[in-house]
Amino acid sequence: MIKKILLALARAVSREPDTASTGPSNPMSYRWRCECGAKSRYSDIKAGTEYNARRHQWRFPAGHPKPEVYAVDEA
Ligand SMILES: [Zn+2]
């Protein structure tokens, strides 16, 4: 019984994605897109994407919409 649980755990661990560079706690990639038609050139972790989205907004006079940050499924 215990052996079965250990085997299941070992299998779950080995099933972790190969792209471990971002860490298992943050497996998602994020992108941003803006109402003006602009969008991110590449995906990033959430904090990086939010920063890039804000940088896009700052390039324009006040009143420019804040880009939408959304998760993507790519590795
Ligand atoms: Zn924009």
Give the uncertain stretches in residue-range form. Answer: none
Percent helix: 25-40%
Mean pLDDT reading: 83
Largest sheet: 2 strands, antiparallel
Bound ligands:
zinc ion
Protein traits:
single chain, 75 residues, alpha+beta, two-stranded antiparallel ribbon, rod-shaped, binds zinc ion
Could you explain the architecture of this structure?
There is one protein chain. The chain has 75 residues and is α+β, with helices and mostly antiparallel strands. The protein has a domain of 49 residues. Helix content is 35%, strand content 13%. The protein is rod-shaped, with a radius of gyration of 19 Å. The structure holds zinc ion (ZN). The site of zinc ion has 5 residues, from loops.
Record the SSE blueprint.
Layout: H1 2-14, E1 29-33, H2 46-58, E2 68-72
Antiparallel strand pairs: 1-2
The structure holds zinc ion.
Summarize the structure.
The two termini are about 35 Å apart. The radius of gyration is 19 Å and the shape is rod-shaped. The protein has about 80 residues and is α+β, with helices and mostly antiparallel strands.
